Input
Amino acid sequence: MLTAAWEQALSEKIANKTTFADWLLHVSPELHWDWPYIRYAREHLDQITSGEIHKLMIFMPPQHGKSALATIRYPVYRLERDPSLRVIVGAYNQFLSEKFSRQARRLASYRMQLSPERTAAYDWETQQDGGMRAAGVGSGVTGIGGDLIIIDDPVKSREEAESQAYRDRVWDWYSNDLYTRQGPDCAFILIMTRWHKDDLAGRILDSDDGPNWTVISLPAEAEPGDPLGRAIGEALCPTRFDVPALADFRRTLGRDYHALYQQQPRAREGGMFKEIWLPLVDAVPARAQRVRWWDKGATAGGGDPTAGVLVAYAGGITYIEDVVRGQWAAGERDAIIRHAAEKDAETFGPVTYWGEQEPGASGKDAAAAFVKLLAGFSVYTEPTTGSKETACDPLASQAEAGNVRVKRAAWSSAFISEACDFPSGKHDDQIESAARAFNKLARYPAPASGTNTEARQIHAPKPRSGWQRG
Output
């Protein structure tokens, strides 16, 4: 008779020789693992297993089996191959992450020896110290490392997707909590439907880490260049949702259909800016004139953010080139402003800095401190007058005329989203800073000199009452 240890060793040997496809047919023969889009996703999961890729995004419509495949069964398959594997599963809240973990644990209990000492839905282990930890957005996972980190549905609803505060929260959770828990050769899998261009997937793909991710995007209705070779308009899973069923979803959901079913989130169009007016570019001409406007907040973790937006002008085109933004206490904020100026000098050369002088004696003192902070740079402050809409109108006019571009970066989606929400959105610090920087570039032009036909010289005006200059 085999001992428990021999049984476990035999099970591991068999598991290591079993393909994921065969394993699925064995453990869940009642499900349709042969559908083409499931095979396509499974093949990419095989590449995670082999180490060919380490970071995978899977975008599919709701109710197409992505969680059953990748969040519940795939980690159990991997744990059978290596019971010491440490898996972290994240979702938009603790309840959903524990639901995934509980389903995986139930399946694992039939397939391998689990530890009787740690059996909670949010934290269970094998007898070889592997296992699964569940965490909702905002939940910490300190004290453990991850060999396989799976994030499934980090956004619950359109309301959350439209909230920049929530999108920032998801990003902070990913970058500060989950990303820092990865062990050597850790693999990441992000599974979601795309609600918003500035969702977690959008920010990752716009970041420096974006090229390291492999993306599977499978719309409900095939589009040109379909990875499965479908005809345009063909349903992803006609057995469950045929073309008439998808048409009914499209009529009911409106623009949400493009996000949830086609993986093409569409930003709202505000009264002044439209997303189509703000195309992304990969580079900005080096020989451009530049202004960075600072809109300062002073509360760490709350209140209005501080934003410093760098705007460049060359060849009749205005570029939103860089955004520095966050919620910092006054001391940290000032250090970041100074560091940004030093980095600008290294990266771009001369940049002119502007900031607001608020009313009253305290406003004058704050303006003087801002000028002193940026000693050695060209820096001005001035009282701002008129409404924010009035300040943003010239930039909106140029955007509508096709004369504005946004540099592709980790912050670009958030900037465009805020612009499209203006003036009714929760925050306006980025778009107002961009507009006021643009207004300075547009107000004080001078003819180009020498052979630099694309750049303008920005002659700072002579100081007048109410201005502070460094």
Notes: The chain has 15 helices and 16 strands. The chain has two domains: 4-218, 275-442+452-469.
